[in-house]
Design goal:
The chain is mainly α. It has one helix and no strands.
Protein backbone atom coordinates (compact mmCIF):
# COMPACT_ATOMS: atom_id res chain seq x y z
CA UNK A 1 0.00 0.00 0.00
CA UNK A 2 2.89 2.29 0.58
CA UNK A 3 3.66 2.24 -3.06
CA UNK A 4 0.14 3.17 -4.01
CA UNK A 5 0.03 6.15 -1.66
CA UNK A 6 3.51 7.07 -2.78
CA UNK A 7 2.38 6.99 -6.43
CA UNK A 8 -0.70 9.01 -5.61
CA UNK A 9 1.39 11.53 -3.69
CA UNK A 10 3.77 11.85 -6.64
CA UNK A 11 0.81 12.42 -8.97
CA UNK A 12 -0.61 15.07 -6.64
CA UNK A 13 2.77 16.79 -6.46
CA UNK A 14 3.08 16.70 -10.24
CA UNK A 15 -0.42 18.12 -10.59
CA UNK A 16 0.44 20.94 -8.17
CA UNK A 17 3.62 21.75 -10.07
CA UNK A 18 1.64 21.72 -13.35
CA UNK A 19 -1.01 24.01 -11.85
CA UNK A 20 1.73 26.34 -10.61
CA UNK A 21 3.33 26.44 -14.08
CA UNK A 22 -0.06 27.12 -15.71
CA UNK A 23 -0.77 29.90 -13.20
CA UNK A 24 2.68 31.38 -13.84
CA UNK A 25 2.12 31.20 -17.61
CA UNK A 26 -1.25 32.94 -17.20
CA UNK A 27 0.39 35.71 -15.16
CA UNK A 28 3.09 36.16 -17.79
CA UNK A 29 0.46 36.26 -20.52
CA UNK A 30 -1.56 38.88 -18.62
CA UNK A 31 1.61 40.90 -18.09
CA UNK A 32 2.48 40.72 -21.82
CA UNK A 33 -1.06 41.73 -22.77
CA UNK A 34 -0.93 44.67 -20.39
CA UNK A 35 2.45 45.76 -21.80
CA UNK A 36 1.14 45.38 -25.35
CA UNK A 37 -1.89 47.53 -24.49
CA UNK A 38 0.32 50.23 -23.01
CA UNK A 39 2.62 50.16 -26.02
CA UNK A 40 -0.34 50.34 -28.39
CA UNK A 41 -1.73 53.32 -26.45
CA UNK A 42 1.62 55.08 -26.76
CA UNK A 43 1.78 54.37 -30.50
CA UNK A 44 -1.78 55.61 -30.96
CA UNK A 45 -0.99 58.77 -29.04
CA UNK A 46 2.15 59.38 -31.13
CA UNK A 47 0.23 58.80 -34.36
CA UNK A 48 -2.59 61.05 -33.22
CA UNK A 49 -0.15 63.82 -32.31
CA UNK A 50 1.68 63.53 -35.64
CA UNK A 51 -1.62 63.66 -37.54
CA UNK A 52 -2.70 66.69 -35.51
CA UNK A 53 0.56 68.48 -36.30
CA UNK A 54 0.17 67.64 -39.99
CA UNK A 55 -3.42 68.88 -39.94
CA UNK A 56 -2.41 72.13 -38.24
CA UNK A 57 0.33 72.65 -40.85
CA UNK A 58 -2.14 72.12 -43.69
CA UNK A 59 -4.64 74.48 -42.09
CA UNK A 60 -1.97 77.14 -41.62
CA UNK A 61 -0.86 76.77 -45.24
CA UNK A 62 -4.39 76.91 -46.62
CA UNK A 63 -5.25 79.94 -44.52
CA UNK A 64 -2.00 81.62 -45.52
CA UNK A 65 -2.76 81.10 -49.20
CA UNK A 66 -6.32 82.30 -48.76
CA UNK A 67 -5.22 85.94 -48.86
CA UNK A 68 -3.20 85.29 -52.02
CA UNK A 69 -6.16 83.58 -53.67
CA UNK A 70 -8.50 86.39 -52.69
CA UNK A 71 -6.14 88.98 -54.12
CA UNK A 72 -5.71 86.94 -57.32
CA UNK A 73 -9.47 86.54 -57.73
CA UNK A 74 -10.03 90.26 -57.17
CA UNK A 75 -7.32 91.10 -59.69
CA UNK A 76 -8.77 88.69 -62.27
CA UNK A 77 -12.24 90.14 -61.68
CA UNK A 78 -10.94 93.66 -62.26
CA UNK A 79 -9.22 92.58 -65.49
CA UNK A 80 -12.38 90.89 -66.75
CA UNK A 81 -14.48 93.94 -65.89
CA UNK A 82 -12.01 96.16 -67.75
CA UNK A 83 -12.20 93.89 -70.81
CA UNK A 84 -16.00 93.99 -70.76
CA UNK A 85 -16.01 97.79 -70.44
CA UNK A 86 -13.63 98.07 -73.41
CA UNK A 87 -15.79 95.70 -75.49
CA UNK A 88 -18.89 97.72 -74.56
CA UNK A 89 -17.29 101.00 -75.54
CA UNK A 90 -16.05 99.51 -78.83
CA UNK A 91 -19.30 97.79 -79.90
CA UNK A 92 -22.00 99.91 -78.26
CA UNK A 93 -22.97 101.76 -81.44
CA UNK A 94 -23.19 98.59 -83.52
CA UNK A 95 -25.33 96.82 -80.92
CA UNK A 96 -27.73 99.75 -80.64
CA UNK A 97 -28.10 99.93 -84.44
CA UNK A 98 -28.67 96.16 -84.65
CA UNK A 99 -31.35 96.27 -81.94
CA UNK A 100 -33.10 99.22 -83.61
CA UNK A 101 -33.13 97.37 -86.92
CA UNK A 102 -34.66 94.30 -85.29
CA UNK A 103 -37.30 96.32 -83.46
CA UNK A 104 -38.26 98.54 -86.37
CA UNK A 105 -38.31 95.85 -89.09
CA UNK A 106 -41.53 94.01 -88.26
CA UNK A 107 -42.53 91.00 -90.37
CA UNK A 108 -46.00 89.78 -89.44
CA UNK A 109 -46.34 86.02 -89.66
CA UNK A 110 -48.32 83.27 -87.96
CA UNK A 111 -46.53 81.51 -85.18
CA UNK A 112 -45.62 77.93 -85.98
CA UNK A 113 -47.47 76.61 -82.92
CA UNK A 114 -50.69 78.28 -83.92
CA UNK A 115 -53.19 75.67 -85.05
CA UNK A 116 -56.44 76.47 -86.70
CA UNK A 117 -59.05 74.53 -84.81
CA UNK A 118 -62.09 76.28 -86.08
CA UNK A 119 -63.06 77.87 -82.78
CA UNK A 120 -62.03 81.35 -83.72
Amino acid sequence: MATKSEGIQRLLNAEQRANAKVAEAKKKKQKRLKEAKEEAKKEILLFKNSQEVEFQDKMAKSQGYGDDYTAKINKDGQLEATKLDDALAKNQGQVVDWLLDLVSDIKPEVHRNYATTGFA
